[in-house]
Amino acid sequence: MVTGADLLVAAIENEGGTWISGIGGEETLDLLDSVRRSKIKFDATRHEHGAGIMAANHGRLTGRPGVCLATVGPGALNLQNAANYARLIKVPMVMIVGQKKIKSDPQAGFQKVDVINAMKSYTKMAEQIVSPASIPTMVRKAFQIAMQEPPGPVILELPMDIAEEKIQSVPLIPVHPIEFPVASGVALDRAAKMILAAERPLIMLGAAASRPPSGITNFVQRTGIPFFTTQMGKGVVSEYSNQYIGTAALSQDDYVHDAIDKADLIITIGHITTEKPPFIMRAEGAKVIHISYSPAPVEEVYFPNAEVVGDLGPSLDLLADRLEGRLPNAGALLTLREGIMSAISDRADEERWPVTPQRLVHAVREVMPENGIVALDNGAFKIWFARNYRTYAPNTLLLDNGLATMGAGLATGMMAAKLHPERRVMVVGGDGGFMMDNADLETAVRLKLNLLVLILKDGGYGMISWKQAADQYPDYGQKFGNIDFVKLAEALGAKGTRVEALDDLVPAMEAAFEGGGVHLIEIPIDYSENLRVLTDELRLRKAARAVATRYKSI
After folding, report:
1. pLDDT tens digit string along 99-128?
2. pTM of the full predicted structure?
3. Strand order from edge to edge, sheet including 201-205
4. What span, in angstroms and rounded, lies between the C-alpha atoms of 481 and 388?
5. Element (H or E) spanning 307, and its range?
6. Domains and CATH numbers, the chain
7. Residue 535 DSSP class
8. Pairing of strands 265-269, 397-398
9. Using CA atoms, how far apart are residues 442 and 452, in angstroms rounded to an integer?
């Protein structure tokens, strides 16, 4: 005889699950005890949000769903933010939540929430388990749906009496690999014809292109076409390639948009439209070919002229076979590369203190090896890292450009450090976002992770202050009192350092990595560059282009 909880744990093990994060409760006692007796390791976090973000990033980094656990009511509701994080950036995760008994009602309405209906709009599958015998089927279905295109979150609710109910053991459903189909020959021929006819082609690498495995570098090299990336497509192809022409950290008017605006054909590879638009598509502008695992949704700013749908690696190999050696105009836009690269590296060596975003990015790149992982929280610094931090490999700059939720950076870095203990992992967060999930610094210490947490201190919600200034509103409602982050780190069991001079920044980061364990470094940051570069400078460029266009048409 086995319990429903035993069956659920066995089914997760059957899927290859070795780890669950979360917070238990009265309604999950049977489930926790089943986990205790299994090969699965349970890591208690300090908030369900962190557990969910960790599970989502397990899916992002491995392609297999991470699993997280919450109890009834308030615990389950705390997973909503993480569910939407996974939904919008298209990564697989499985959430397990508890519930009161459903065959009797001894606690009346206490803590009762209809979690399944609440989660239906956030997930690909949301179901309550009502019979232990159905558990193997439901778990297999949940994992399969989480990984189907487009990947995303699923949730299973296990009521307390179903978890403790005993039945004869039910066979588990075997897991088998599923390969994506390759794009059709007709679609490949149509795309090849458009690319061969292009005078100024450009490749864009999006979030879905960063899923393991990749194989996209081969296509870029064989065609010779320059490429840019979205924020979440960074690293798919090394950005130290001579074909890299920038990252679209903004939707328009940045230096990379010089190339985007001049292109007559943009080949988007792995673009997901829940990511903030890397460019605004217009009917009179460049034609667009969408190449991805799934068809493109029709959006106001994205409506491709042709689509190639299938497994990216093999499909791109077949497309390159049709193009290699036949593209005399492949590098037409590369003449713009030097100017774009120069603009985005401007003032990277500036000696100002407090540190500017450009100088910060330069310092972080200096201490991170090619395979080092930087996990970003959300704030103004994210734009600077997306724009200025050049990556060598996929998933080495982890940022959220879908939900863009604050407080997710620490949990993201924790999962990266857990999966890759041999690599340097750094979290970069602001003093606003970090305080939303800082308690899990203790979790990182308890898990014996090697993790550097860099806290940028400006005493307010800097992104919104910048937006207020850009739109000519007074700076209002964005400042807060601050704390001693070094003492906070030490109180949570981590090491802490405060950097008070630019010359000490790189040595402090090196020392933290060499010392191992969890280390927090606090530094002040000067965000005046947001307004100077990302508002005033780009606004002047836009005006100059408009004048040039008017004179050209006369």
Report:
1. 989 988 887 778 889 999 999 999 999 999
2. 0.96
3. 244-247, 227-229, 201-205, 265-269, 287-292, 306-309
4. 30
5. strand 306-309
6. 2-167 (3.40.50.970), 185-342 (3.40.50.1220), 347-534 (3.40.50.970)
7. I
8. unpaired
9. 13
